[in-house]
Write a structure and sequence with these properties.
About 45% of the residues lie in helices and about 15% in strands. By secondary structure, the chain is α/β, with parallel strands linked by helices.
Length: about 450
């Protein structure tokens, strides 16, 4: 092992650990040697844990974050789009997660309909937040894992495809994250940045917009913490050669009418088909992220033009058509676009009624998400099987008034006892005010983060 690290001229792992522990700056060679050793096994799990803890307390500079992000990207396959017959740039979005955040299912086909290509490599649900891959697996037959060449061909022909991370994509991140997860070193801005941005770079993107959420349902609940993460990811993305922006959005209320895998797929279809009322906050996030991407990629001359273009493909059926084509290409049943009953349904579906007159003035969004998990729609252990049928639909908006006994939300459960538990969790997640009170949710778009000058 010593000879391997000498080849890099980077010293030994214990020297890097000591250097970072004492507040020093790691060189590019040291970072590259560390990441290479993670993949080959020459850096032990104990050394990964020790360096992660040193970074947790001392953090990484922007330059160190860029170097580590590039090293993690290059630890496996990096997708190349140069020889593909593409009509426009290669773009994507990433969300830090929330409840009812089904944006990807609408935005990806809308962007493709506007002429860009979206190779989306998405994740599963984490804690109380839903995952795009879990939602797609609610579609009968949909294959979230596939050979890279087929994935690229679908992106080329349809305009977008959504798959889960492959084993050879940024493998160092998978190994490092597993160790961080059990050593209380996940919550570090530099390491979170490296984990997210390296995988987007490995997808071969030229442009990325990040949806960084704040509020009680977000991973980074405080605005300043979310802003720091957004700035870090934007600066590292730009520093690594990828045009990047972030839009900070509010997650203090659920983002959609529904929360739960099959239910959110159904809402995405209705959104693109125009068959139901579009959730105002969800629609605004979709259009804001999409217009930022079309503008920054040069497809539109300004955000207003980009928004009009997105609204056109949303309303004329083109985005819905591409969603069906992508689902079919991924092995799924495209008939879900006109036959919602093809999606799995729960055996117990019943409304929860208002226990007293009042106005909904707020949510514990994390509590709503954990209620979906408790129903079986999320995981309490890694690799646990989830129930795609369960969740909530007809989630009310802040400010809605209800009389005693009126339907407030519909709960989809696997059993009567599960329905009862979900009802209790739902009630505990609500804040009620007296009838006549004026309650209003915070604006869903908080701010846009551009690269700093040093990036």
């Amino acid at each position: 092992m010593m000879e391997e690290f000498k080849r890099f001229g980077a010293g030994l792992p214990q020297e890097w650990i000591r250097k970072k522990r004492d507040g020093g700056t790691l060189s590019v060679d040291e970072i590259q040697a560390f990441v290479s050793g993670v993949v080959t096994g020459e850096v032990t799990e104990a050394q990964i844990a020790a360096l992660s803890m040193a970074i947790y307390f001392q953090d990484l500079s922007v330059e160190e974050r860029v170097a580590m992000t590039l090293a993690v990207r290059d630890s496996g396959r990096v997708l190349d789009w140069t020889h593909r017959n593409l009509r426009g740039p290669v773009v994507d979005k990433h969300s830090t997660g929330g409840v009812g955040d089904t944006v990807s299912l609408m935005l990806a086909p809308m962007l493709a309909a506007c002429g860009v290509h979206v190779p989306m490599i998405a994740g599963r649900g984490l804690a109380h937040t839903g995952g795009t891959i879990d939602k797609l697996e609610a579609i009968p037959g949909y294959q979230t894992g596939m050979e890279v060449q087929r994935f690229q061909r679908i992106v080329e022909e349809v305009g977008f495809a959504i798959v889960r991370q492959t084993e050879d994509l940024a493998p160092a991140d998978r190994i490092m994250y597993a160790t961080r997860d059990v050593t209380a070193t996940v919550e570090n801005v530099g390491l979170i940045t490296t984990s997210i941005v390296s995988k987007k770079l490995a997808a071969g993107l030229s442009h990325l917009v990040l949806d960084v959420k704040c509020g009680n349902g977000a991973v980074m609940q405080e605005v300043e913490a979310a802003r720091n993460l957004a700035k870090s990811m934007v600066d590292v993305g730009v520093g690594a050669g990828m045009n990047s922006r972030a839009v900070m959005t509010d997650m203090s209320v659920p983002l959609a009418w529904s929360a739960g895998n099959a239910l959110e797929v159904r809402e995405a279809v209705e959104y693109l088909a125009g068959t139901g009322e579009r959730h105002p906050r969800l629609d605004e996030v979709v259009l804001s992220l999409g217009s930022e991407l079309l503008w920054m990629s040069g497809e539109c001359s300004n955000p207003e033009q980009a928004r009009r273009k997105l609204e056109e493909v949303r309303d004329n059926g083109r985005a819905l058509e591409l969603l069906g084509q992508s689902i079919e290409a991924m092995g799924g049943n495209p008939r879900i676009l006109d036959r919602s009953d093809i999606l799995p349904g729960a055996p117990v579906v019943r409304a929860w009624k208002a226990p007293r007159p009042g106005v909904i003035s707020g949510f514990d969004v994390r509590g709503v998400g954990m209620a979906v998990v408790a129903l079986g729609g999320g995981r309490t252990r890694p690799n646990e099987t989830i129930d795609p049928r369960v969740g909530f639909s007809s989630i009310p908006l802040v400010g809605q008034t209800f009389g005693l006994g009126e339907d407030v939300v519909t709960i989809h459960a696997s059993s009567e006892s599960a329905w009862d538990e979900a009802a209790n969790r739902w009630e505990n997640s609500l804040t009620w005010s007296d009838t006549g009170t004026c309650a209003e949710a915070p604006a869903v778009i908080v701010e846009t983060v551009h690269p700093s000058r040093r990036a």
